[in-house]
Amino acid sequence: MHGKTIGNPLSWSAQRLADIGRSAGAAVDGVGSHDMTLPEVNEIGLGDIRAALRKGVEEFAALRTDVITAVALYPVIGFVLAAWALHSGQVHLLFPLAAGFPLVGPVAAIGLYEMSRRREQGEDASWTAALATLTGRVLGPVLSLGCLLAVIFALWLFAAHGIWAATLGPEPYDSLLAFLRATFTTSAGWMMIVIGCGTGFLFAAIVLCVSLVSFPMLIDRPVGVPVALITSLAVARRNPGTTALWGLIVTMSLVLGMIPLFVGLIVVLPILGHATWHLYRRAVV
User: Fold this and answer.
1) Cβ atoms 44, 246 nearer than 8 A
2) pLDDT tens readout for residues 56-77
3) Which of 22, 97, 127, 141 would bridge 70 by S-S if both were Cys, CB 3.0 to 4.6 A apart?
C-alpha cells in the first residue's frame, strides 16, 4: 500500500511530462509544411465581403457573451500602450501605436476563428471549448505566425520613431497638445505625416496579404506556416481589388472601434474576426 501511494504521484508526474513532450513535439512539427500541395483559391468580390460581414454580425449576436470574453484583453492592452506613450515622454509614438496595434489583431482573433469553425460544424462554440482546441499541432504554427506579426509591429514602431527623429525630433514633447501643434503647423510636421502614412501603408499591406486567410487556414487544416502564407498571398494576388477593399473596411472599423478609448473594439473585433473566417471559406476551396 505504501509503495502504491508513492508510485501514484511519480507516475502522474511522468505522464504529465510525457503529455507536455508530445504537445511540444506536435507544436514544433506543425510549424513546417510536410505537404506543399497548395489548395485552389477562388475569385471573390464585393458580394462575398457583404456575406462575410453579415455572417460576422450574426455570429457576434449569437455568441455575444463568449466573444466579448475572448477579446476583452485586446482593448485593455491598447489602452495601456496609449497611456504609456502619454506618460513616458513618448507622445510621438501614440499614433504609431494606435495605427500599428491592429497589425497583431489577427492573433487576437484566433479564438474567434475556432468558434466560427465549431459553430459551423454544430459543435460547442463557447470560448472555453475554442481555446481548449488550440494546443499541439495548431498552437505551434499559430504562435510562429503570431511572432512574425509581432516582429513587423516592432519594425513599424522603430520606423515611426526614426521618421519622427528625422523630422520633428529628436527632442521629446512635454504634452500631446504641443506635439499636435508642431505636427500640423510646421513643414517638418507635414513631412512626418506624409512619410509616416506612406510607410505605415506598406506595413499594413504586408500584414494584410500575409494574414488574409493564413490564420483561419491554420485553425481549419493540418497545414504548416509556409502553405498558409503562400495560400494567403495567392488569394491576395488573385483578388487585389477585393483585398484592398477588405483592408480598407478593416482599417476604418478598427479606427472607429479605437476612438472611444479602445472600448469599441469589444464589438468591432469579434465581427471582423468571424467575418474573416467566412471570407476564408469563400476564398479557399
Assistant:
1) no
2) 999 988 877 667 766 667 677 7
3) 127
